[in-house]
Amino acid sequence: MSPKVLAGSSQGIWVFWTGRDGGRDEIFGSIFQGEAWSKPYKLNNDNRYPHLSPSASLDGNGCPWVAWSAYDGLDYEIFCASWNGAAWSAEENLTDNMTADTSPAIAFVHRTTPLVIWSRSFDRTGALFARYKQDQVSGSEIEIVSGQAHPVRSPKIAVLGERI
What we know:
By secondary structure, this protein is an all-beta fold. Helix content is about 0%, strand content about 55%. Strands 9, 10, 11, 12 and 13 form a five-stranded antiparallel β-sheet that branches.
C-alpha cells in the first residue's frame, strides 16, 4: 500500500504504511529526525486481523494522528491513534457495527478538532460518513451522502479553517 508522508512537523518527517510483523497487515509509523529514521512504531494492538489504508494528518501542535480500517472478525471498522509528542495513544475504535467501514481520511478543523470521513458499504449501496472529536469526546456519526447505485469509495478531505 502507498505510504503516507507528513512533513511540516517540528519534530521531523513522519511516514505511515501498512506492513507485516509476523502476522497480518498492520499499521506502522516512523519519524526522520535529522539524521536517521526511528525504529518503526506499531500503531495497532491486535494482529489477528488485517489493518489497512492509513490516512494521516498533523494537528495544530504538529503531532500526527492516523486513521485506518481494520477487520474485527465480522467486518471492517475504523480505528485511530495519535502521537502526544512522546508516545502513541492506544488505538481507538471509531465505528462498531455490522457493515464494512473502509478508506478513512483524516484532517483537522480549527487546527485542534480531528475530522474523520470514511466509506460504508452494505449490500449494493454505500454511504460516506464522518465523525469528529472535540475536547477528547467523539461526536456521533454523521451521514454525508449515500449512493443507491454506486457505492462511495476512497473519500479524500481537505480543510481550510472552518471550510471542509
